[in-house]
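Usage

Read records sequentially. Each one opens with the input sequence:
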Amino acid sequence: MKKKVLACTLAAMLSVSMLAGCGNEGSGQGSSDSAGGGNASGGTTDVALKVWCPQNQVDTGIMEEQQKAFAEAHPEWNITWTTEIVGEDNAKTEVLKDVDAAADVFLFASDQLIELVDAGAIAQLGGDAEKLVKETIADSVRATAMIGDATYAIPFTHNTFFMFYDKTIMSEDDVTSLEKIMAKETGDNVYNYYFESSGGWKLGAYYYGAGLTVFGPEGNDLAAGVNWNNETGIAVTNYLIDLINNPKCAYDGEISVTELIEDHRLGVWFDGSWNYDTYKNILGDDMGIGVIPTFNPDGNDYQLLGFYGSKCIGVNAHSKNMAAAVAFATFLGNEENQTLRYQKSAQVPTNINAGSSDAVMADPLAAVIVKESNEASVMQPSHSVFSTRYWTYAGAIPTEIRSGAINKDNVQEKMDTFVSAMTAE
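and closes with the structure output:
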């Protein structure tokens, strides 16, 4: 993956005691309150920190602002920063290519955690970093950064999707169910709905919404298998065949959301807070948001359930500057910086105080995300077998429906094949 590199050196010459951040180098563990940050004489120590973050953290100036503030707060370190563009969705892939060459601190999606831990690529956090997670992060997201009682990352924002709609096409009542959305009379050149599976991420909402699972409700019981080929699973798949092939349903890859909404040609689509400003800038007051709707594949109304996780801050277990890396990760995840990130990039804080502030509570976007996480979501499985199989096999289902490879004549056979691939020894 091609990375954009931004490098700068921030030096501080005053001598003070270390405020936070250290660990046992090479141990794969990091603690933000251990000794060993500066040099023995109390002077300044040269430290190089490589940071991986998504494009929006650079374009908005957030990362540079946070790096400057951290350097000013830590004059015991003369820090050389290297900032590279790596999206949260690609972090695991890039880290595991070469852990030693990967960033000291990186932002990643929580479903990647188990594979990073299994590879020994992410440091277990202790001290102030662990305290930050266990005492200041909301209960609903804390578990996304932990395995058992061990803390491996700092969740900084919710990671789920919700519903957007064009108020010139759909009313608030229209968007309560997919049946109403698809039945709405719209212009000849207007699509009622946009189908995007995101490689299986959004696809799961239909199957999980109907009560189906992959490796049990928690996604970690391999013996429970996969039940997407039972009667309900077949009904859901047939529903998707009708939906994807409906001429009033736009299909991802064939036309873009932004192209459609610029001309008021799309009624409803699903996306996350990271694209909120883009859509708001296009539609202005004509943009509506809400919890994803219900659907009825078999005579029963089900609430679609989107995968829920978080975006996290992790520390490379092989970092050569573990003390500074853990301290910086902790700094990025604190209340002040979660508030800053919310103000500049609309990422709703996971910090309890920041998330309950008057500004956040009065924000319709934040309200929808909180409601979505409480009423229309399921914790995204993170088991390594799920991760290595689901995205490949589930992601192929919509593609095969669109091509005709999955149709109502062979749907049972195809779903049996899917389940066999997911559960193969």
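Summary fields computed downstream for this record:
- The two ends are 32 Å apart (CA to CA).
- Residues 182 and 282 are 23 Å apart (CA to CA).
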